[in-house]
Amino acid sequence: MAATRIPTRITPQYLENAALHYLERFAASSAGLRRVLLRKVDRSVAHWGGERADHLAAVDAVIVKLTNLGYLNDQAFAEMKTRALHRQGKGSRAIRATLAAKGVDSDLAEQAMETLTEEHAQPDLAAAVKLARKRRLGPFRLPEKRAETRAKDMAALARAGFDFDTARRVIDADSVDGLEELLTS
């Protein structure tokens, strides 16, 4: 059996180093990085003793310092995450939910969604078409299978965060060319 690793004692320098190491590997919001650092604090307190509250000020100081240095930028994170999720074929509902789960403020999420709207005339429709193409739904499916799998295809788009009207427009499109016309109109 492998021995369990003993957590490091929490110091302000350790928290800063841990935060920088995390940010080297992952993009994060301030709230997301705070959760990561608090998990480290919790593991350390459970092993070494002490109070979680004793380390909260150090965690907040690291967050403020990294924000001032430009390593943490919630607006840039929200815009990056929004674009990435849109490229994956996620709808605006799913994008907003993901940003909320990542700890992005609702105002910043709305600004990121507005940026996406400036880049794409119909962002939800474009994302739905991308997802349909990737998953071979609706007009991307074999013609003889379309009728029997319509409900399943609609459900797949609904789970991806698209409203009923958008899902219906994509799934019920006559052809791939018809979808392209929807996007350009």
UniProtKB/TrEMBL annotation:
Annotated localization: Cytoplasm
Keyword Phosphoprotein: no
Keywords linked to the UniProt accession: Cytoplasm
BP GO terms, sorted: regulation of DNA repair
Entry annotated with the keyword Cytoplasm: yes
Pfam families, per the entry: RecX_HTH2 (PF02631)
Gene3D superfamilies attached to this UniProt entry: Winged helix-like DNA-binding domain superfamily/Winged helix DNA-binding domain
Chain ranges of the RecX second three-helical domain: 73-113
InterPro entries: RecX_HTH_2nd, Regulatory_RecX, WH-like_DNA-bd_sf
GO CC list: cytoplasm
Recorded family membership: Belongs to the RecX family.
Role according to the record: Modulates RecA activity.
HAMAP family: RecX
Protein name: Regulatory protein RecX
Species annotation: Magnetospirillum gryphiswaldense (strain DSM 6361 / JCM 21280 / NBRC 15271 / MSR-1)
